[in-house]
Amino acid sequence: MRHRILATLCLGAMVMVSGCGGRSGSAEVDRALKDLNVVDESNLNDLMLSSADPNEAVSYFRRATGQDPGRIDLQRNLAKALVRAKQPSQAIPVWMKVTNHKEATEEDTLSLADALIRSGEWAEAERQVNQLPPNFRPYKRYRLEAMIADSHGDWAKADSFYETAVGLTNAPAGVLNNWGFSKLSRGSYAEAERLFAQSLSYEPDLFTAKNNIALARGAQRNYTLPAVQTTQTERAQLLHTLALAAIKQGDVAVGEGLLREAIETHPQHFDVAHTALEALSSNVRN
Predict the structure, then answer these.
(1) Which of 20, 135, 216, 236 could form a disulfide with 266 if both were Cys (CB 3.0 to 4.6 A apart)?
(2) Which residues constitute the domain of residue 126?
(3) pLDDT tens sequence for the chain (286 residues)
(4) What Pfam families does this protein map onto (predicted)?
(5) Euclidean distance between CA atoms 104 and 75, whole angstroms
(6) 207 and 181 fall within a common domain
(7) Among 93, 114, 132, which residue terminates a domain?
(8) Helix, strand, or coil here: 83?
(9) Chain-centroid distance, C-alpha 263
């Protein structure tokens, strides 16, 4: 369908310029076709990044950069696709190539720092962020600064950066989830639960935040499911999370009951819950 639409547009372009005649008309046709191809390619690139299978997007942009290695936009898209495909370590050298390009921007440096953090390379991520101009302060920088402060255990600075980042974006679910996990790691369980719930108010399908709420509730010995929208599979997974939290805190009988409920709830064979229940039963017998 896309090719038929493009062919129709091209035909229309040729009809419009056919009255020019001669070389001038031919040049106009070439320019029109080139412009249409650029628009068509741009739309396809956006589609590959937003809705294609992440691994398919990686393959597509690898081919594209191989055919035209000098284009920074294709390199950016390859790096973004690699991060989306959960391959941040492979995205790092691509982002480095982008940041060394003459058309690189400060946003590219932030994206490199983000990939470094995802790969656990905190010191280099901090170095990249610190070399940015002090007056360049977009939302993404505050989010990364907050995570770096977290890695140093500088809670006051982390909270300040998280709060600022939340105020600078219309889609704060991810940063609220990160902030909640920071509170969880500090033992501030009730505050963590509140932040996870706030994250879900912006993005109800964010399963990481749902699971984190279960962790926060379990840490407070509250083993009831959080009041969030879930699929049957998600419900089983949250029950499994609560079960493990209960067992970890010595509430073994509660944990066993939650594991059984998770197995009954899951629409398919819930292998990890079965394994945990068998291990628990074996320890009890021994």
Answers:
(1) 236
(2) 54-132
(3) 444 433 433 334 333 333 444 445 555 544 544 444 444 566 778 888 877 788 999 999 999 999 989 899 999 999 999 999 999 999 999 999 999 999 999 999 999 999 999 999 999 999 999 999 999 999 999 999 999 999 999 999 999 999 999 999 999 999 999 999 999 999 999 999 999 999 999 999 999 999 999 999 999 999 999 889 999 999 999 999 999 999 999 999 999 999 999 999 999 999 999 899 888 877 755 5
(4) TPR_19
(5) 11
(6) yes
(7) 132
(8) helix
(9) 29
